[in-house]
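Example S7 (structure tokens).
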């Protein structure tokens, strides 16, 4: 394989790279009349931006005209200096024959995103009625043509052109451009409105579970035991105190009372709620009364017989 074509291609690429490489700081260091403007480019970092470009035109301002930029805030210095960097190659011949007598030139400031309207553009006009044929000014409507083309300082054709202009291009509103850009961005993208806090539905009050009503103790009355005639019936134990109380009738005559034997059917002392015994039938009560009278009669006869025997 013949190495000559590859070597030739390498030489062409090296030549193109060398031709495109430039350093604006080194170029302006050769001309002390532009030292102030050269310092502005270095201090603001614009020199690095220029050196990275392939095609550029720099409008250098002499020290006397650049002095008005001294003492300004760093961002204002950078914005104004970037307006003097055109993103294309222009030499004197090309500027002296603009199409239709005027043209808009895009500057490095346009790439910052801070330029509103036509603030990032320059208006270049061929002025045939004056000694200086080419004038520069801001493209913002109403801006004056404040700088004029003086001469070419240095050129590397179609890569970089350094031209001298008579004064600074200082458009109105450039000082407040940062605050204006911030306000515009805020108006275009207002902060999101925080949603109103959602009101949680009120949790229902805990329902009071109806506790089952305790059944009232049954009031039961036990049937009274059979008693002999003439003896007052006492209320059976377990009778509800709140029940009606009946007055006992007075005994008809003094008699010997025979205590009845407690019946097996008498109520026990179990707790309230025990089932009460069935009431004694009326016939059983009458039978008990007759037995009591018979026993009392027999006791009386025995007593009479004992007295007769004495």
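Recovered sequence:
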């Amino acid at each position: 394989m013949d190495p000559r074509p590859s070597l030739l291609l390498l030489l062409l690429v090296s030549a193109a790279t060398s031709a495109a490489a430039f350093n604006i700081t080194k170029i302006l260091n050769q001309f002390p009349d532009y030292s102030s403007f050269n310092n502005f480019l270095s201090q603001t970092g614009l020199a690095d931006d220029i050196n990275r470009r392939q095609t550029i035109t720099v409008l250098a301002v002499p020290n006397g005209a650049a002095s008005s930029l001294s003492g300004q805030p760093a961002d204002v210095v950078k914005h104004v200096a970037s307006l003097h960097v055109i993103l294309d190659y222009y030499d004197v011949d090309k500027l002296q024959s603009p199409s239709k007598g005027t043209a808009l030139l895009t500057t490095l400031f346009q790439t910052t995103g801070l330029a509103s309207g036509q603030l990032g553009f320059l208006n270049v006009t061929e002025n045939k009625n004056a000694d200086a044929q080419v004038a520069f000014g801001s493209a913002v409507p109403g801006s004056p043509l404040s700088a004029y083309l003086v001469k070419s300082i240095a050129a590397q054709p179609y890569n970089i052109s350094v031209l001298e202009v008579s004064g600074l291009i200082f458009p109105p509103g450039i000082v407040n451009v940062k605050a204006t850009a911030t306000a515009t961005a805020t108006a275009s993208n207002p902060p999101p409105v925080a949603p109103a806090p959602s009101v949680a539905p009120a949790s229902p009050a805990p329902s009071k579970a109806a506790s089952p009503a305790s059944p009232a103790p049954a009031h039961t009355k036990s049937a009274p035991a059979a008693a002999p005639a003439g003896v007052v019936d006492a209320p059976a134990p377990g009778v509800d105190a709140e029940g009606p109380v009946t007055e006992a009738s007075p005994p008809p005559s003094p008699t010997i009372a025979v205590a009845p034997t407690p019946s097996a059917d008498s109520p026990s002392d179990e707790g309230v709620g025990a089932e009460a015994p069935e009431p004694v039938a009326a016939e059983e009560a009458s039978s008990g009364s007759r037995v009591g009278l018979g026993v009392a009669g027999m006791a009386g006869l025995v007593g009479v017989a004992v007295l007769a025997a004495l």
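Notes on this example. Residues 282-309 form the longest helix (28 residues).
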